[in-house]
Amino acid sequence: MNTGVSQNDAVSRESEAAMRGKYGRRLAGVAVLVFGCLVAISALPTVVAAGTLGTLSLREAAPRPAADPQPASALIWSPEVLSGGDRERYLKIFAAQKRADWKKADKIAATLSDKRLMPYVLQERYLNPRAKAKYAELKAWMASYSSVPGANKIYALAMKKKPRKAAAPERPTAQRFRQPAHAIYSVDDGADVVNSERFAKVDARIREMVRDEKAADALNYLKSTSARLALTDIEYDKVMERIACSFFIENDNERAYKVANEISDRHARQVPLADWYAGLAAWRMEHYADAARHFERLARSDTVADWSKAAGSFWAARAYLANRQPARVAEMLEAAADTGATFYGLLATRQLGREPRITWVEPKLDRTAYEALIADPAVARAVALAQINRRDLAEQELVRAHGWLDPALDGALIALASTFDLSAVELQVASAANLPPLRPRNGEIAINAGLFPVPDYRPADGFRVDRALFFAFMRQESKFRPDLTSPAGARGLMQIMPGTASHISRDTTLASANKDKLFDPSYNLTLAQQYLETLMNSAEPRGNLFMLTTAYNGGPGNLSRWLDSINFKGDPFLFIESIPAPETRGYIERVLTNFWIYRSRLGQPLHSLDATASGDWPVYDTAESQGGSLSLR
C-alpha cells in the first residue's frame, strides 16, 4: 500500500527514548476505615488516587469534543506545535480516511510540513479492515513507533499477518508508571515480612471461609497443627486479624474482641488493624473504655496511613465522650483533623467548628515550562492531537509520557492537561507528585486542582444532579477515563454495567450489541443521572448519601438485605462499618470525601458534612442548577 509518506519521516523510537531523562448534637461516629477482612493493610484507601489504574482495561474512545478555551486570566497564549495550515491538513487527512479515501489522504499527507502525527494517520489506516494492511507496513510501523499508544494493536495485527519465516516485528515499548507519592507506610519485619508461599496458601483458605461468614471454621483451621506450623508469629496474627473482622461482621462481638485484643497485645505495631476491630467490637458491646483504648492505640501507631490514624482518633474521641471523659475528646479530634482531607479528618475538622483546610490554586502554564515539556516527543504529539480535537488520543499520550518525564515538570504537566481539559492526566500526575496533598502551601504547583479536576463533561439533557456529586463518583469509578472497562464489564466515566444501562434506558441492545455506547461521556452521564435519581428517591431518608453510594457500588438488593440484617443500632456509621462487602465500606468513605472536597472547590455549602459530623444520615441537597433540577419525591 502506498501511504505517500516514508516511515523515515518520523522521530525514531531510539531518539525519542533518549530524550526522556507524586470535626453537633452528639459526637458522630466515623465510618469505613478499611477494607477489613479480605484486604491486606497495604491496600488501605488513600485520598490520592493511584497513579495507575490497576487491572482496569483501556479501549480506544470516541473522539472527545474540544474544551472551551481557557480564560485569558489563566492563559494568555495558546500552546500549539502545529501551524494553522498543518492543523487543517491533518483534519482533512483523518476525514478522508474516515471515508476510506486513501489516495486523497496520501495526497494531503505529502504536503505536510510537520509529520509528527503520521503514526496516528498510519495506525488508523492499518487498523481499518478496508485498508488490508500488509505485514511489511505493520512491521515498519512497529520499528518506528513502538512507544506510541496503540502499538499493541498494530503488533497484534502484525503477528496475525506475519509469514511463517519472516522476522518478528518490534514489540511495543513497555509503559513506565510512577508510583503514587503518598504511598502506604509498611513495616519491614525482616524474616517476618508476609510474602511467603506458605502464608499465601493459608491466607487464601481463610479468605474463602470469611467470605462465606464462617469465622469459627476459619479459626479452627488456623489453629490446626499444619496451618499453625506453616506460619511465623506475625503471619499467624495477620491471618487472625481477618478472622477477628469476620467475627465482627457476623455480630459475634465477644469473639471478635477476644481475638483482636490478643493480636493487639502481641503485635500491635505489625498488625495495627487488630485494634480497629477490637475497638469496633467493644463499641458495639458498649464497652467504651476498651473501645477508646484500642482506637487510640491505632491512632498513635507509626505503621498506618493517615486515613487509619484519622479513623482511630475520631472513634477514640467518640468513645471517650460516651465513657464520660470529655477532657480527651478535643485532643483526639485535633489528631484526626491534623490528617487533612481524609473522611475522618474532614468530620473532625467540622466538629471542631472549622472549615476544611484546602487551598485551591488554578494551574497556570508558563512558556518556559511549556518548552521543556514539548521537548519530549510524546508531549508534543499530545499538543498536536489536542489541536485537531483528538483529546482522547492526547490523553493517552500524556498518560504514557508521565512515567518518563522529569518530576520537576509535574506542575507544568498538570497545567497543560488542564488547558486541554484532560482531567485523567491531571489526576494521575497530581497523585504522583511529591507534595503533601490538600495542605496550605506557598509553592506554585497547583496539585490540589489536579487532584480534584473539574472536567467539562455533561449529560445530554443537562445537569439535574450537582456536578460535585458527579465528579465524586467519576473520580472513584473511572479516574475520569471515559474509555475504561472494568474486569466485571462496567463501562465509561460512571462505570455503568451494560445490564444496568439496559434497565435504565429500556434499550435491550445496551446489554449486547450497543454496549460500547456507554463509552460516550454524554450518554454515560445521562444514564448515570437517571440511575442516581432513582437510587436517591428510593433511599430512606430520601437523598441519603450513605445509602446512595452503598446501592451504587453494592447494588440496591444488597443494600436492602444489609439494612435488614446488620446490627447497627441506628448508628449510620456502625452500619457502614458492618457491611459485609469490604469494597463497599471503602467506597462510601471515598466517594463522600470526594463529594465534600468538590463542594469546597466549587464554593458550595457543606450541609451533608455538617449532618454527618452531627451523627445524622447525610442527605443530598442541591447547590446548583444547570439545565434542570433534581426532584426528590
Computed structural class: mainly alpha
Q: What is the terminal-to-terminal distance?
A: 62 Å
Count of DSSP E strands?
A: 2
What is the helical fraction, as a range of percent? 40-55%
Q: Judging from the principal axes of the Cα atoms, what is the shape?
A: globular
Uncertain stretches = 2-36, 38-74, 182-193, 440-444, 627-633
Strand content: under 5%
CATH architecture identity of the domain at 192-351: Alpha Horseshoe
CATH topology of the domain at 192-351: Serine Threonine Protein Phosphatase 5, Tetratricopeptide repeat
| Overall pLDDT score | 85
Radius of gyration: 27 Å
Going across the major beta sheet, what is the strand order?
1-2
The CATH superfamily of the domain at 192-351 bears the name Tetratricopeptide repeat domain
CATH class of the domain at 192-351 equals Mainly Alpha
Number of helices: 30
Largest sheet composition: 2 strands, antiparallel
Protein name: Transglycosylase SLT domain-containing protein
Keywords: Membrane, Signal, Transmembrane, Transmembrane helix
Domain Transglycosylase SLT: 462-565
Organism: Parvibaculum sedimenti
Question: How would you summarize what this structure contains?
Answer:
The protein is mostly helical and 633 residues long. Helices cover 51% and strands 1% of the residues. Among the domains are: 192-351, Serine Threonine Protein Phosphatase 5, Tetratricopeptide repeat (Alpha Horseshoe); 367-451, no CATH class; 467-613, Lysozyme (Orthogonal Bundle).
Q: Mind explaining what this structure looks like?
A:
The chain has helices at residues 13-18, 84-98, 102-109, 118-126, 135-145, 151-161, 197-211, 215-222, 225-229, 233-249, 253-267, 273-284, 288-299, 306-322, 329-337, 343-351, 367-374, 377-387, 391-401, 410-419, 423-432, 447-451, 467-477, 498-505, 521-538, 545-554, 556-565, 572-577, 582-601, 607-613; strands at 57-58, 484-485. With 633 residues, it is mainly α. Among the domains are: 192-351, Serine Threonine Protein Phosphatase 5, Tetratricopeptide repeat (Alpha Horseshoe); 367-451, no CATH class; 467-613, Lysozyme, CATH 1.10.530. It has a two-stranded antiparallel ribbon with strand order 1-2. It is globular, with a radius of gyration of 27 Å. The N and C termini lie far apart (62 Å). The relative contact order is 0.12.
